[in-house]
């Protein structure tokens, strides 16, 4: 892994609308600054596959001497060069509109069930509601309001379906203890979750009430990825995000299939399997509060929107390796050595971290990034390849064009908690105050 590079120069300001900010407790700052007509100060950098070095048994920063091969008189075998990853981006100037699909109670997530056109929307009080995107008709398919409570950053936070759609995995906080719970449900053919089938996979104590992460994703390998915040409070007071002996501040990876010792199986190729003083469930480290992450369905690139402390929000992008492994394995995303690209905790080693590809500050009313997904739909060809995200306080929706070095304003809503794809890869903007909008051609 490389040493973090110096801060890049900002690209030009983004033209945006003024907004009144409402602070989501997921963000680190306590005071949202007033906004004006200038866009957030944006810094764009790039990452390459060179950042995805495999860790050794002693952690992500250790290196081992290369293996030596005996000399040979045979000419080396000729193999075609590996394809270079394509920097994501889009052409033109997409014009969009936001079409309201439904009004729900504190929605913040969306799950895709294979071969099912239903929008499975996550409501923070503890419900998964199935929505027909054409008619707006709704039905509650899971109700766990007796197991969790929507308070600050707690509640029902994430949903992912198994590759065949027969199982659902939800992430919620426990109503009594505040612990992070990842549980599995059997899903019937008509999309209902069977309450009697509930099986708890993970029960992770939380030292504070905030920074629970909560997003869950079924990866391109069919395994379950779980985003964990750094345990909460502010400033990573217990330095958990880079501590390999705790699950806080990490991206976890498990096989939900039970094993002899656990209600899940640890994949043999997880980066720290067999390492001393490291938990084998860990896939990547150095996250503060990953508020939506996912894999590009076309390229398998990894995108993570990580909420900042008081100054900077960030987007991380890792191209899929050419060797077929999953993007992000063994990486550190830098918190709390860095907030964005700026040094944060001086007692944390600054070396061996991967830079974000975009950061923005709080000077224009932003406060808490709401990720975020690459657009892979068909309705807006000019937007294909752009990473679309928002901010909770400003509600402004942006499309990041890494290839072109642009951060284009698409529009503005309110209290946005997520921008996520539906079954047809069209994107939906989810607002905590109730509405769910589809991004349509303008």
Global structural class: mainly beta
Look up the CATH topology.
Neuraminidase
Report, as a whole number of angstroms, the end-to-end distance.
Answer: 43 Å
Strand arrangement, largest sheet? 1-20-17-16-15
Unreliably modeled segments: 1-39, 46-81
- Domain tally: 1
Please identify, by name, the CATH architecture: 6 Propeller
Annotation, overall tally of beta strands: 27
How many H/I helical runs?
0
User: Whole-number average pLDDT?
Assistant: 86
Overview of the structural elements:
- This protein is mainly β and about 450 residues long.
- The protein has one domain (about 40-50, about 85-440): Neuraminidase.
- It has strands at about 40-45, 95-105, 105-110, 120-125, 125-130, 140-145, 155-160, 165-175, 180-185, 200-205, 215-220, 225, 250-255, 280-285, 290-295, 300-305, 310-320, 340, 340-345, 360, 370-375, 385-390, 395-400, 405-410, 415-420, 425-430, 435-440.
- A 5-stranded antiparallel β-sheet has the order 1-20-17-16-15, with no helix packed on it.
- A hairpin with a 3-residue loop joins strand 4 (about 120-125) and strand 5.
- Residues about 1-40 and about 45-80 have low confidence and may be disordered.
Secondary structure topology:
Blueprint: E1 42-44, E2 96-103, E3 107-111, E4 119-123, E5 127-131, E6 138-143, E7 156-161, E8 167-173, E9 180-186, E10 199-204, E11 216-218, E12 224-227, E13 251-254, E14 282-284, E15 290-295, E16 302-306, E17 312-318, E18 338-339, E19 342-343, E20 358-361, E21 369-374, E22 387-391, E23 396-401, E24 406-412, E25 416-421, E26 427-431, E27 435-441
Antiparallel strand pairs: 1-20, 2-27, 3-4, 4-5, 5-6, 7-8, 8-9, 9-10, 11-12, 12-13, 13-14, 15-16, 16-17, 17-20, 18-19, 21-22, 22-23, 23-24, 25-26, 26-27
